[in-house]
Amino acid sequence: MMFHFPSTSKRVELNTDKDINNEIKRETLENIAYFIGKDDEEILSRMEELDEEWDIERLLEANAASIVALSTILGFTTNKKWFAISGMVGCFLLHHALYGWCPPVPILRRLGVRTSSEINYEKEALKNLLEFPY
Prior knowledge:
70% helix; mainly alpha; single chain
């Protein structure tokens, strides 16, 4: 029997509580509905905001890199036991890469942090609202 890893684009959503996924979808649809009938300038401004929005992958990478860097510095300067945190974070990142879950995921999702697919869905919907395609 061969094990199948979840697809990259769906792995976080598959590991997020259904109610949280629904809330993120509801907020995304509200964002889109708000821009119906707005002028192109307002829509383009929102699309620029979306280009700057950090997705969950970027937040996890920045968080993990910060913890690894800090624990490595502390391991060299104070106590070697700090190196264990670097190893633990590495294991969490590997688990996330394979399955789409690690300890910060539920917290970030509850805070409304979206996947790149969810952000792109809003951008594509907004493109369809533009009077003149850009």
